[in-house]
Design brief:
It is a single chain. By secondary structure, this protein is an all-alpha fold. Helices cover about 65% and strands about 0% of the residues. It contains 45 helices and four strands. The strands form two sheets. The protein has a two-stranded antiparallel ribbon. A two-stranded antiparallel sheet has the order 3-4. Strand 1 (about 55) and strand 2 form a beta hairpin. Residues about 1-10 have low confidence and may be disordered.
């Protein structure tokens, strides 16, 4: 098949059959002597013929030459039937010397085409054209002689139009074969061959059209040919006509389209506008490996155009490309993956893919020898799983998680960095899915992620992503927290948050920064997610001993005052987890006189998320007198009340109410609340239909503790509290309704139930 500068498509079976009627096997073309009356000068030396300078016929080609130019006597294979030698011209003697047994003669065919005797002889003319086509196909050295190629083209071109189809087929075949020879290509084009071949694409004769397309395929690397195809609308004919004819037609069409696609973006746009994608999609079912390779390569080139990606999917090519993956390797698989990795970057396409197709990617992760292929597999996995979680779940069920963990532990050429990035991106996007999370936690996932996170040689982005993954996993899974704690994860996180320079850290020159700047960048990248992991570990793991041994508790508190919101929030989460811990020592640390003031100070933060987190910490501690003392000292009750009254953040208000509820048992706080009109504020929150359910639940819980005291209960009753609680008893939120009913019960116990004013319906 066509694939180089001097190769060509072989003759189709149909064309070979049509040529059998022209010449029997082993039969040679016979020369027709040129009419000597028309020749006045020797065509070789240009001497004028006269009585002295006589004319002679060459017995090989039939041409008229002078005596000196035909002085040799030689045997002419296929022409003279005896062993006698005949007069031959000098050009013929050369090729008869070089090819003593070769029967073909290029000059003979040219003379036969120009001979008047053959003007009406269809078979003779067809034979002459066929012989020239055969000589061109075999790369005959006769064509390299000076002036021979020009003579061949001059005699051939008139027979490409307006003649019998047998003659025309062979003439076009001869031009296509000449185009196949790189040494003859330029002169063949200069003779005006290109418009003839493009025009022949519209022929009704299948064999003629096929030969014309063959010639175009061989010349399509030239810009002038591509322009002629566009101007004469040959591209549309090639796409819509050739594939239906034969396997050869399909192969020729694919070669032309590949040449156009390789020529530049403007040609790829042209192919897309001619709906070439649908033709290529149909070709993906062929068993011809050469066609498959070229078709997938064209699709890979066209896919670089964003507008073509949806068309590639709509044509059915994506499904066909997935089907190629298990059965083909090499360039076919490479090209298919290249298309899929680009097309799946469109989330709209991913949503319409079938799980059974996408699952064919999983086995390809075992091929570690081809880094580029792995990159495209990982890119496609990342694209599909981030668009639809059903793919991530399917990948997990197919056992992809251990394979990805294996890839993460491998290092190698530069391409491995992108493989690691895509694998980590898959985990980060999918770790909230049970199947993926369980596979990570139950396998070696925690160990692998921890190893990367503590590495001094991995890229900063990889380390940060691993820490973010551990943060997400530890927030969901108690097993993950236990596993991380058991392998020394607490100490690892403490090293990250203590902001110490990393020893033996490999300098990455590609970042364009100094080693010191890289150190700072690495420490900053680790800090936030490491604090998040620490906060999660504090939930149920006995980490206080590790923190205390490392003297890191003050470091955590220091980060709570960071100007970076994310770091400050993460540090406050750690403090909240310590406050909630069942380990009394961690709670004692938070209640220390040098710790509480800074925590309470965060209530005044302009950043509501930080103020909310601080209120949450206070809510956990305010049952302890030391916390209440500090709150009174800093007049923090007023801050909490302002949060309840003025903030639009229901979550912040709920935490503030929770903190207020925890302080209600202290008579000192009751005085502050009553002076600040706090009771009226709480009642209004219960009556307000726009108050969030969680906020009303917090208020009801706070009031339930508040009204245990008779004086408090009476004050609350006078503020309209019974009616406010009544309005919450009928809520659909069962927790809030139950809390309201409990508060009403406490109110009735604390004072004479006859004074608890509620309506009959309640």
């Amino acid at each position: 098949s066509y694939g180089g500068t001097s190769s060509s498509f072989g003759d189709s079976a149909a064309l070979a059959l049509s040529m059998q009627s022209l010449m029997a096997p082993g039969e040679a073309e016979q020369p027709v002597w040129m009419d000597q009356n028309e020749i006045s000068n020797c065509p070789i030396c240009a001497i004028e013929f006269s009585v002295v300078k006589r004319k002679h016929h060459c017995r090989c080609c039939g041409g008229v030459v002078c005596g000196p130019c035909s002085g040799q006597q030689m045997n002419v294979p296929g022409v003279n039937k005896t062993a006698s030698k005949e007069r031959v011209c000098n050009p013929c003697s050369k090729h008869l010397t070089d090819q003593a047994t070769h029967q073909g003669c290029v000059l003979r065919s040219c003379v036969n085409l120009s001979a008047k005797q053959n003007a009406t002889e269809v078979k003779a003319l067809a034979v002459a054209c066929k012989c020239l086509a055969d000589e061109a196909q075999s790369g005959s050295p006769q064509l390299d002689e000076e002036g021979v190629l020009e003579k061949v083209l001059m005699n051939l071109i008139p027979y490409t139009r307006g003649v019998d189809p047998q003659i025309q087929r062979q003439a076009v075949r001869a031009l296509a074969n000449l185009a196949a020879q790189e040494t003859h290509r330029s002169k063949t084009m200069e003779a005006g061959t290109v418009p003839i071949l493009v025009d022949m694409l519209a022929s009704q004769d299948d064999l003629l059209r096929l030969q014309a397309a063959r010639g175009i395929a061989l010349l399509c690397s030239e810009e002038v040919v591509r322009q002629a195809l566009i101007e004469m609308r040959g591209v549309n004919t090639i796409i819509n006509t050739l594939p239906a004819e034969s396997d050869e037609g399909q192969a020729i069409m694919i070669s032309i389209l590949e040449a156009l696609a390789n020529a530049g973006a403007q040609y790829r746009v042209l192919l897309r506008e001619h709906h070439c994608v649908f033709t290529l999609a149909a070709c993906l079912t062929t068993k011809n490996a050469g066609v498959l390779e070229k078709a997938t390569n064209i699709l890979a080139l066209i896919a670089s155009d964003h507008q073509a990606r949806r068309a590639i999917f709509e044509s059915g090519a994506v499904t066909a490309l997935f089907a190629l993956l298990p059965n083909h390797g090499g360039k076919i698989r490479f090209n298919a993956l290249k298309v899929l990795s680009v097309v799946t970057s469109d989330s709209g396409v991913c949503l319409q893919l079938a799980e059974r197709d996408v699952a064919k990617l999983a086995p390809l992760l075992d091929h570690h020898d081809n880094v580029q292929q792995l990159q495209m597999v990982m890119s496609t996995i990342r694209n599909t799983s981030s668009s639809d979680e059903r793919f991530a779940r399917g990948f997990a069920m197919a056992g992809i998680v251990p394979k990805l963990l294996n890839l993460l532990q491998r290092t190698g050429p530069q391409g491995w960095a992108s493989i690691h990035t895509d694998a980590l991106s898959f985990f980060l996007a999918s770790c909230t899915i049970d199947a993926v999370r369980d596979a990570l936690v139950q396998g070696s996932g925690v160990m692998v992620l921890s190893t990367i996170a503590s590495s001094t040689e991995r890229q900063i982005s990889e380390i940060e992503t691993c820490l973010n993954l551990l943060s997400t996993l530890t927030s969901f899974s108690a097993d993950c927290r236990r596993s991380l704690f058991e392998i020394g994860g607490t100490q690892m996180m403490l090293e990250c948050i203590q902001m110490k320079p990393i020893a033996n850290m490999k300098h990455d020159a590609s970042l364009g920064i100094s080693a010191e700047e890289q150190q700072m960048l690495m420490m900053s990248a680790k800090l936030g997610p490491a604090l998040q992991v620490m906060a999660n570990l504090c939930e149920d793991q006995p980490i206080w001993d590790v923190i205390a041994d490392a003297r890191a508790e003050q470091t955590v508190l220091m980060h709570a005052s960071s100007k970076d919101q994310n770091i400050s929030l993460a540090a406050l989460r750690c403090v909240m987890s310590l406050a909630r811990s069942t380990d009394a020592r961690s709670r004692e640390f938070v209640l220390r006189s040098d710790v509480l003031p800074s925590l309470i100070g965060h209530l005044s933060s302009k950043d509501e998320s930080i103020a909310e987190m601080a209120a949450g910490v206070i809510a956990e501690l305010c049952t302890d007198r030391r916390c209440r003392d500090e709150l009174l000292k800093q007049d923090a009750v007023q801050k909490l009340l302002r949060m309840v009254s003025s903030s639009r953040n229901d979550s912040l208000r709920a935490k503030a109410v929770h903190a207020i509820g925890g302080m209600c048992a202290d008579e000192r706080f009751w005085d502050v609340i009553t002076r600040s009109n706090g009771l009226t504020m709480l009642v209004e929150l219960l009556f307000n239909p726009n108050s969030a359910g969680s906020l009303k639940l917090g208020v009801c819980n706070a009031i339930g503790d508040l009204v245990v005291d008779r004086n408090h209960a009476l004050a609350f009753q006078r503020a309209g509290g019974a009616h406010a609680l009544t309005s919450c008893v009928g809520m659909q939120d069962k927790d809030t309704a139950a809390a309201a009913a409990h508060a009403l019960g406490n109110l009735a116990k604390a004072i004479d139930s006859a004074n608890v004013q509620i309506d009959d319906t309640t």
